[in-house]
Each structure stands twice: as C-alpha cells, then as structure tokens.
Amino acid sequence: MSEENKSAIMMPKADDLILSSSPHIHSDVNVRKIMLKVILALVPALIASVIFFGWDAVRVIVITALSAVVAEGLWLWLAKRPLTPLRDLSALLTGLLLAMNLPSNASWWICVVGGFLAIWVGKQVFGGLGHNIFNPALVARVALLIALPAAMTTWTPTGGLLEKNMRLPSGENVSITTVAESEAPAVISCATPLGEAAELKRTPNGAATFAPITEKSDYVKYFLGERLGSLGETSCLALLIGGIALMFMKLIKWQIPIFFIATVAVFTAIVHLCAPAMTPPPLFHLLTGGLLLGAFFMATDMVTSPMTTGGCILFGVGCGVITCVIRIWGGYPEGVSFSILLMNALVPLIDRLFQLRPFGYVRKRA
Amino acid sequence: MSERVIPPKPLSFPGGIHPAKDGKGLTEHKAVEKAPLLEDYVVLVSQNVGAPPKVTVKKGDAVKKGDILAEAGGFVSAALHSPTSGVITDIGEAPGPMGVNVPAIFIKADGLDEWSDKLPAGLNWREASADELKSRIASSGIVGMGGAAFPTHVKLSPPPDKKIDCVILNGAECEPYLTADHRLMVETPERVLAGAAIMGKILGVENIAIGVELNKPDAIAALEARAQEYGVKIVGLKVQYPQGSEKQLIYAITGRCVPTGGLPMDAGCVVQNVATAAAIYDAVAEGHPLIERVVTITGDIVVNPGNYLVRIGTPVIKLVEWASGVKSEPRKLILGGPMMGFAQKSYNVPVSKNTSGVLLLGGAEIIQYESSSCIRCGMCVRGCPMHLSPGPLSMLIENEKFDLAGQNHVMDCLECGACAYACPAHRPLVQHMRRAKAEIRRAGKK
Amino acid sequence: MGTTILVAILFTGVIALLLGIIIGVVSKLFSVPSDPRVELVLGLLPGANCGGCGKAGCADFAKAVVAGECPPNKCPVSSSEQVSSIARALGIEAGSEFRQKAVVLCGGDVNQMKMLTLYNGVSDCVSASMIGGGPKSCAYGCLGMGSCARSCPFGAIEMINNLAVVHAELCVGCGACVKTCPRNLIKLVPADSEVHIYCSSPVKAPLKRQVCNVPCIGCRKCMKSGEEGQFEVDGFKIKVAYDHQPLPGAEVVDAASCPTGCLLTEKQHLAIERAEKPVVEEEVAS
Questions:
Q1: Segments in chain A forming alpha helices (H)
Q2: How far apart are CA B321 and CA B315, in angstroms?
Q3: Are A105 and A238 in contact (CB under 8 A)?
Q4: Which among A10, A11, A18, A25 is the top mutation candidate for probing chain B, defined by the most B β-carbons within 10 Å of its own β-carbon?
C-alpha cells in the first residue's frame, strides 16, 4: 500500500471489461454434459445388446448413430446454420436411442432411413433441439414400424441368442441352430414374449392361458435379457442400472418412470385378477416389451416431457394407461412407443394445467 | 396467518440453488482493515431508492466529516453526509453503478479528517423514545446496505393498518464471495445486536431474530454470546441461495409467505441487513451518520483479497490498489456479489451506501457463454425461489409477448439469478426477465 | 367393384350436399350485419397493422373512417393517391395532409463512438441499456442492437456499423420505432425535412468529445449559416426547429461546415455510413 511498492503491483486496465447480466458465475452443467451422461447411462444396455445379439447389434448401433449425426450435420449445412449444435451430442443420443428401438436384424438402410427420419422429421423441422414436440427417436421408430411392419417385427435371433432354445410363433420349442440345419429357411421369425402373449390369448384357457410364458425361469430370462425384442429393450437389469443412475444424477424427473411403471403394474394387475385370460400377470408386463427402456430413457426426454412435478406424474400415469390399453385391447402387441408419443402431444396442455403458482400467490378476489 | 413465529426447523425455503463454489474462503478469515484516508472522494448524489436528495453545498464550500452534503428530497429519500473534511471541488457527473453518468459531489480531503461540530450527541437507546430514535436514523442518511438501498426510516414507519410483530435481521449473506457482513458480525456483534434492539424498540416488537447461514459458525457464536442481553434470537439457516432474499428469509424464519406483489410488512415483518443495524447503532449511540461501510474486495485474481472499512465515495480502483492489485487482467468488474451484482465498465465508480463487495473476475472464472434453445430440462423451475417458470417465460419474452409474460407472473421475479446459474443451455434468463419487467412498467406508465 | 365406387361417390356427394346446405342456412341465420363500406375501405388500406394511425389496426381504422371519426389521411402509410381513393369511395373529404417520417438522431456508429466494453447478452436495446448502460461509450447514443429495425413493419431502418439509419423513402412515419428506443433517439419529423443534427446527448461538449467523434458541441455555426429560427439551442446542443418553415436545406450544411460533422443531410449521412469500413467484430478469448 505504500508508495514504493505501488509500481510493483499489477493494476488492471479499464478498457476491455465485459458487460453482461447477472449472474456472473454459472454452474458447470451444460447441454453437452447432460447428453453425455445420458449416453453413459445407456452404456449398460448397449453392452447387454451386444452380449445377446452379437455383432449384429454393433452394426445396427453404429449405422444408426452415425446416420443420425450425419443427418444433423447435413441439415445444418443445408440450412446454412452454424454447426455448433453438433457439439451438444444430442444427435448421437437420438441415434443411440433409435438403435435401441430397432431389431437386431434390421438391414442397414432401415437404420439410415431411421436416423434421417429421427433428426429431420422428428427434430429439425420443428427448429432443432428444444423445439421438437415429439421424441425424435420414437418418431422414427413408429414411422418405420408403420411403414415397414414386416421388417420391424421380424425378430430373428442373432449372436448369443442363436444357441438358446427359442419358441417359434406356433409355440414349438426349438433351438435355432437345429432348425437352421434341418430346414435352412432364409429368415427364421420368432416372437417376442409380448407377441407370444398375444398369440396365446387367441386360444384362451382360463388361468392357464399364459402359463407357458410365465414360468419362474422365464422371468429370470426376461430380467437378464435373454429374449427377443428390440436391441436395447431386452435386458431389464442393464436398463435398471442406467435408469437408476439417471434418477440419482437428477437428469430425469423420477416421477415419470416411477409413475409410468407403477401405472402399468397396477392396471395389468387389476385386469389380470378380474380376467386371467385377458392378459399375463403384471410382472410379465414390467419385464417384457419396451416398458423399462421407454420409461427410463424415452418418456423422460427433457424436451418432450412436462417441467413440473405434478405434470410429470400425470404424464407418467397417462403413458402407463395408454400402454396397457394398447397391450391388452389394441392391435399391436406393444404400446410403449405410441403411448409416449401421444402423451408428448399433450405436454403443452399438461404444463398449462400444472402451471406453478408463484411463492406467496394470493388468488385475486373478484 | 399462522401463529408459528420462530419455529425450530426447517429453516429454509422451497426452490433455490447451491452454488458449487462460494469463494468465501478468500476473505472470510480476514479481519476488517480500516482503509487509509484518500485525497479525493466522489460522493454520488442519489444513493437511495426513491427521491434523490437535494444538494445543499456548492463548489468551493469547506465541509467537515459528517456535514450534510444533500438533504432528503422527500419522505422516501435519505440525506448524504461528507465522508471526510475538506473542500467541495466540483458538483458534476461521475460514473454510477448502473453504467451511466450520474450527479456526484467531488471532495478534496484536507487530510485532517475532523468530525463536524454540528453532529448530534450520542443517545442512550434504552432510554430514548421511539420517535427520537427514528428521526435520528432518518437524519443519519441510513439506507438498506444489503443492496436495495431503501431508506431505513421508511421501513421503520409502517402504515398504521399493518401490524408488525417481527423484526428480522438478514445476516444470511448468501451471495458467494462476499464476507463483509460475516466479518461485521464476527468482529462487532454488539453493534449488530444493539441495532436490532433499537429497531425492535421503534416498532414496539419483542420478536427480534437474526438469520445467519450455517456456513458462518463463528458469526453465530459471536452473536449468540451477547444475544441474551439484547433480547435477540439467533437463527441458523440452511446454506442455500437466495436465503438472504427478504421473502425467502421471512419464510425460513417465521413460516409466513409474503403475498405476491406485497412487502414484508404484509407478513408482519420488517427485514433489515445486519450492516444497516450496525449503522443504526452508530447513528444512535455515537451520532455518526452513515459515511463508511465494510466492503469486500475479492476474486481469485486479486493478489490480496480482504475486507475494508471504507468511506462512501471511495473509487473502486483504490480498493484494488489496497488489495495489492491483480494477478492477471480482469475481464469483469462487479459491484456486489456474483449472483446479483452489476457489471461495471469503469474502475472509477465510487463505493455507495449499498456496495457490499467489489468482485474482479478473470481467466477461467469468466464464461463468455453462447446461449442455445431451452431444452425444457426444468432446472430453472426447480431453482426458482419464487416458483416461476423462467424457461418458458424467457421464450415468451424473446417473442416479445410481454403481456403474456406478465400474466405468468414475471413481475414476481427477484432477479436472483438462480435460474440462469442452473441453466444448462446458458440462457440469459435474468436479462430476459429484466427486459420484460422494464417493458411492462413502461407500458403501465403510458 | 363398380357399384362400390359408385356408392362411395354417391355417399360423399350426399354428405357434401347436406353439409353445404347446413352451412348456408347457418350463415344466413347467424349472420352479423356488417357495413360493406368497412370492407371496401379495408381493402384500400395497406394492411400493415402498424398502428401509426393510433387505432388497433387497419380494420379498426377502417371502421373509424366509415363512422366519420377520423379522416382517411390519418393513415400514415397510404400514399396521397390511396387516401384520395378512399375519400372518393366514401364521398368524403380526404383531409389536409401532413406527413411525417422518423429519424434516428445519433451519428455514433462504432467507428465514431468508442465501444468501451464487450457485451455478452441478449441482442436487444432495452436489455442492453439496463446492463451498465450498454457497451458504447456515450450513454445517450444509439445502442446499435437493432430493436427499432426489428419493430419497423416496413423494413425502413437499417443497421449500419451498429447504428440505426432510417431510409426516408421507405419510412411512412407510423412511429412504431419511436416507442421501442430506450434512449428516445428516434423523432418523428416533417417528411420534407432534409437536414438533421445527428446528436441527442444533453451533456457538456467536452464530455461528449471524450466519448464520440461526431457530437453536437453547441458551437452555433449552423445557426449563423441558416435563416433566423431554423435552429434552436437546446441545453448544450443545437436542434433543428422542425416547426419553422422553410426547413434548412443542403446549402445550410455546406455553409455551416459543421466542425464535428453532425449536421448533415439525410443523403450525406447515409453515404457516410455506407462508405465506412464495416467493423470486424472483436472475438473475446475465452
């Protein structure tokens, strides 16, 4: 502070101060980090899919993810916009989520079309990340499902599932290798557990209708993922690991998956108790199909889910009810994708319904 | 309204954030140093909310320390006093804390620093009447020193239909980096406690509480040691931003909600900053007007950050000099804390009555952020202490739908910055809110 | 096969017919009587809904004109031919004309007025003015964020070198920009005015000089060059007396040779801004 050491200290120059609004500090979260964490939470399911479906899974994942990223880049380039949105990894995440929703035997062009559908139709036509109404990956998945029903519902065991005993749609229990050797068909189509349930429902047999697919050993298989289905939906264990991690990191609103799953459980339990031949028991519903994938990774997409706690609960319940209605009475064996898309459309209304009251809000008396 | 007045727990409020880095470690253990006398002071004329005071001196006048420079320009106004003895060299304009030049009084110190002989004698506050105390506070130019700069005597004169039953002192100091109030409470707890008791006496209120965040255990201990003799309760509060906001503080301590658009008095409370309480004590017991305050000069690039007792009117550049300069070139100069402080473009801006800190940010602390679209993650909604939806609001404001923003309660925004702090898309939410509030006010005036 | 198609066509046809009848009946039953003249006037109006007439929009204005509440020339956008055609259609007087245009009274582009600080935030003048008084050195000058340009329904304001410049030939004087400027720099002036003093800073000359190369320093050279009453003193600056006729012309600018160059004709002003080098935006090293 004395005169002699004044010259020694460095004093600031005044001419290039930055003006900006408060706050002047910022938490270290950003969109990229959020997306990265969700991708990391998907890793267990990705690994599980590779274990059960083999190299075919890797092929589908890589092609889909790559085409989603390319689609995003191409759109931005065509629209003459800066390529910075590519850095936020949201296109990669969409691509990975779409891959999770494809069968392992999906051909390469399905993956590419899906990637472009997701990014272009699902996201960019609305104005890019944050403006889309529907979950982009689900838009692509449902579009593919409706446009190419055969390709999207032909479940061919690949990789690790080849050596396992599988049931044909007729209910016959076979090992794929033996079938392949004796008959050598071009494509062997087997059913997902939900497909099997739909098949069994046609020949109602009272309480024993679903007995062939609801053995204790079946449940263990379903839980670990040793069954047919989309790439990412089969291993409940892997999905639970990722989903719980997301809930703990507060990256998803826990109300959505919990109320989604609980609604499905309660709804199917009531129907199953009243009419056992109508639908399999609730545990079967929880462990099969895309419920866990949908509840933890698809319905919780920040952009297309409500912002308030109450809204999230309603959203989760709505998804659950629609899923059950489609599964039990609908034409499709699976309804998770449709239910989430339908509820996505309602999100603006839900957000209005659950609009927050300001702290200390007093209703004005007329 | 609930009868719960000072409950044991939970002493917090719904919403809010926890800034990862509070930066208080830089200065919280540094005792307040008395700043050396300067040659030149620049006293801004308008340092309070409400009517600006009327200047009563002219160029060439000789003034003593504590002499009146400007008289209150109305009821909601506060007088201004000379920070030292010397000569008025000019009455002109100087850079103000809002970036534009504002009227200011320039004083050249004579180095004697003599107190004025016109100052009133000290009072024994336990014996003085409430009116006597209140007029002393008004004539001493005391305003809210936490940031709002609202004239204190106005807050202590509630309209007769508002019953006040609780005086709350704000020692939360939830702003990261700032430690001026913290040091004040640790070093001179009796001034804070006596100031609180004086306010209680003026308002005829028995219930007096000082809310302090639990990250300041030494301040709580220092206050509690003497609290009994002044009849004041010390309340530890959860460390959460913005705990020091009036409405949130009232909720945390009393469990009452201030109605939207209302004032603390609508919840039966008067909230004052601890620094204001200390100034009130000085005015009453010593007769000294408000001419100096504790200011924290801090920032990771400041060589020797610390707390200084400085005169009102000290240019900020002097504080930087006392703190031994900077390690690297600062990119931002902020008056106040990092969450609600104002970025400055000049180092010549002087310390005002409500300047609690000077923060220099540079290097890694500065993020020149590019904002992207809202991804509706809801972090702003979770962080908002007023339970607004800043993200959707900002989209309305971007599209200039100010009337819709108004319907969605944008006027209740505290501008605390919790939303913008948490936003992963780095959206300038607070700036949007400020714009909407300004536009709505402008439309209302027409 | 043929019958199926026939049945389908018949069915849709019958449904269409029924719906058409219902719509027709309903529109007759519930029709709101409207003055056809309002439609007529509305058709003749520009339809920009700028609000320059003081009404809520063109439809509101048309109603007011038909009701005789205001003369058709109140529409600042319509040309005199359009106004007289409205008057003819209604058989009323067009009213005497007084046309206005907007002018931004600041010449401080980034080359003339120092950019003191780097601004990081919303690109909007109201927002910027609330943060440390904006990034430019003059606290009374154009902030250059283009809020007025965005508010103009006719695209008459161009941002050149961070300065708003009005293109007089496009401006209709609706006044939408006047309301947006937080610095109140935009004034409505008579449409035939040509010379302006491009400075609105009320502070003393030396202070202005510190922050800007082209301030009005109040030297009164223009007052001496022009006719009596063409300019008037306004605090520390001079302003054009727009009420006074005749308004100063280009010859006054030549005669005055304004020492700072803030007294200009509109054409000169535009030419100067156009000629200046665009400024390379400084990137902030993060």
A1: 3-6, 31-53, 55-78, 90-100, 108-116, 136-147, 149-153, 176-183, 193-201, 216-224, 236-248, 255-274, 282-287, 291-293, 309-329, 336-353
A2: 10
A3: no
A4: A25
What pLDDT is attached to residue B437? 93
> Taking the mean position of all CA atoms in its chain, how far away is CA C282?
30
ω into residue C246 within 30 of 0, thus cis?
Answer: yes
- The partner residue sitting opposite A15, judged by closest CB among C116, C122, C127, is C116
Pick the closest to residue B166 from B261, B232, B248 (CA basis). Answer: B232
The predicted pLDDT at position A180 comes to 47
Indicate yes or no: CB of B345 within 8 angstroms of CB of C120: no
Asked if residue A231 lies in contact with residue A238, where contact means CB atoms within 8 angstroms, the answer is no
- Closest by CA position to B421, among listed B175, B148, B106, B112: B175
Count of residues making up chain B: 446
Q: Dihedral sign for Cα A278, A281, A282, A288, please.
A: negative
pLDDT tens per residue across span C182-236: 888 999 998 888 889 999 888 888 888 888 888 998 888 888 888 888 888 888 8
Task: Give the whole-angstrom CA distance, residue B410 versus residue B404.
Answer: 9
pLDDT digit string (tens) for C102-115?
999 998 887 777 77
Radius of gyration of chain B from Cα atoms? 21
Q: Which CATH architecture has domain C100-275?
A: 2-Layer Sandwich (3.30)
Query: Are B431 and A358 a contacting pair at CB < 8 A?
Result: no
The Cα–Cα gap between B200 and B202 comes to 6
* C126-to-B373, B405, C31, C211 alpha-carbon distances in Å: 21, 16, 46, 21
- Per the DSSP assignment, residues forming a β-bridge with B210 are B169, B234
Confidence (pLDDT) at A363: 60
CB C176 within 8 A of CB C151: yes
In this structure, the number of other CB atoms found within 10 A of the CB of residue B57 comes to 18
Q: What is the ipTM of this complex?
A: 0.84
Q: Could you tell me which chain A residue has the CA closest to the CA of B392? A: A307
Phi/psi zone of residue C144: left (φ > 0), alpha (ψ -120 to 50 degrees), beta? left
Q: What confidence tens digit (pLDDT) does each residue in C257-278 have?
A: 888 888 888 888 888 888 865 5
Give dist(CA A8, CA A1) in Å, integer: 11
Block means of pLDDT (10 residues each) for chain B, 446 residues, are 43 82 89 92 91 91 92 90 93 84 91 88 88 91 88 90 91 92 94 94 92 92 92 90 90 87 89 94 93 93 93 93 89 91 89 92 72 89 91 91 90 92 92 92 78
pLDDT number for residue A183: 45
Compute the distance between CA of residue B184 and CA of residue B198 in angstroms, rounded to an integer: 18
Q: Where in chain B is the domain with CATH 3.40.50.11540?
A: 24-30+126-286
User: Average pLDDT for residues C96-101, to the nearest whole number?
Assistant: 74
Q: Give me the CATH code for the C36-90 domain, please.
A: 1.10.15.40
Please state the domain extents for chain C.
36-90, 100-275
CA distance readout (Å), C39 to B74, C58, C61, C70? 56, 11, 11, 17
Nearest CA in chain A to B322: A1
Task: Please indicate if any CB of chain A lies within 8 Å of the CB of B406.
Answer: no
Give all strands (DSSP E) within B203-336, no chain letters: 208-213, 233-237, 269-273, 292-298, 306-311, 332-335
Taking 70 as the pLDDT cut, the residues of chain A under it are 1-7, 14-15, 159-189, 362-366
DSSP letter, residue B350:
B
Q: How far apart are alpha carbons B39 and B110 in whole angstroms?
A: 7
Q: Mean pLDDT throughout C165-188?
A: 88
Contacts of B439 in chain C (CB under 8 A): 126
- Spell out the CATH class of B24-30+126-286: alpha beta
- What is the pLDDT at residue A170? 52
